[in-house]
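Proteins fold reproducibly. Look at a sample protein:
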Amino acid sequence: MPLLSSSLLNEIEQVPSYQIYGRVAGILGMLVEVAGLDRVLSIGARCNLVARGNRRVPAEVIGFREKRALVLPFGSLDGVGLGCKAELADSDPVIRPHHAWLGRVINAMGEPIDGKGPLPTGIEPYRLRASPPPAHSRSRVGAKLDLGVRAINTFLTCCSGQRMGIFAGSGVGKSVLLSMLARYTQADVNVIGLIGERGREVQEWLEDDLGAEGLARSVVIVATSDEPPLMRRQAAYLTLAVAEYFRDQDRDVLCMMDSVTRFAMAMREIGLAAGEPPASKGYTPSVFAELPQLLERAGPGVGKGSITGLFTVLVEGDDHNEPVADAVRGILDGHIVLERGIAERNRYPAINILRSISRTMPGCNSDAETALVTRARGLLSTYEDMAELIRIGAYKQGSDAATDEALAYYPALESFLSQGRTQRFQIEDGYAELARLLNEAWPAEETNAQPGVDALQGANAEAQAERVA
């Protein structure tokens, strides 16, 4: 009760005793010029444009020009004209998440859009544009996180609190892979941000791909491609704010965002409207300044909870070195590359193992697991080096022992990397199956061994055995 009273008192103190408003002095496209509020507004401040019929359109300040504030709306400008009022609103927007948000679908403003009634409100406010935890106070990444996808669990092992990027062109299987991860992960909570998604596909993805089981432990934030850029940007901020709430409840959160590229495109639209010069492929400098601010919010917290981030990057023209992909790859702790050529061979998920990497490996693996994965990668690499000669029949078996070995194991490895959307594989089963395919001995007790963690478990088991004896 004292916490509730303090929170309410803080809100009451922030309520202004009088209303400040300006007037719309100019409109150009989606950009609105507001006069009369230049002394009280600042970058990022909010105001409400009062349209004809007393309809209020929330807007945000993105710049100033000749003593006029430049604002972008969160909604349609229909009915907004010269002379319309612009009322000052909260300058630091917050949300109040609640554990009952699990299983719900909301928009960028934190409003329900699933027809299941109003959302309960939590006590603690969370800023939409919060700062990442201090680097010196953060915990280290945790133990392995079982994501249920065999190729990722085995070759690209992810740990709790790690941040991974999923890089792919359009139509290569990003959304299906995300739905598999949401359904099969061992994380406590999923927070899923669909940024700039096609409106037609949202319901299909929720019902067919994510399913009732995945939705039950997820919060889904949706901003479709037809919404204004501020809505798409805010949906990304809201996704991280909700994930931070559950992290602070000492839960392990899997935060998935599809996609960072559309967030960057929204930032580009905002920057160009504010008059920023384009820097690289039309992207403004503020885009590359904002990306680390967003992505660094994921990761380990200062307590027991963590946010494991999986961020998709839509590479334009299948160019994995385009500006956004290159910037995101340098920020995250690993990348999963989905390749169109593999998808065209009908192998899903279309992960190119050789071009993908997890920066927590091999630190989270035992020596036996590292050796096994290294051998499998070596076989795949040898085959890919000779793939062209093999396909045209120019390679003669017996010419090279390493190539012969890779040729013998390649079909089994391709089958291992393939997985249906309704299949789930546990992390320990992946190593055992890979060892069997490569004719390697694999004691059950070595499976999923983790330095430090398993040593401690082994010591506890020995102590227990001595007490029993």
Summary: DSSP finds 14 helices and 17 strands in the chain. The chain has three domains: 19-88, 94-362, 369-438.
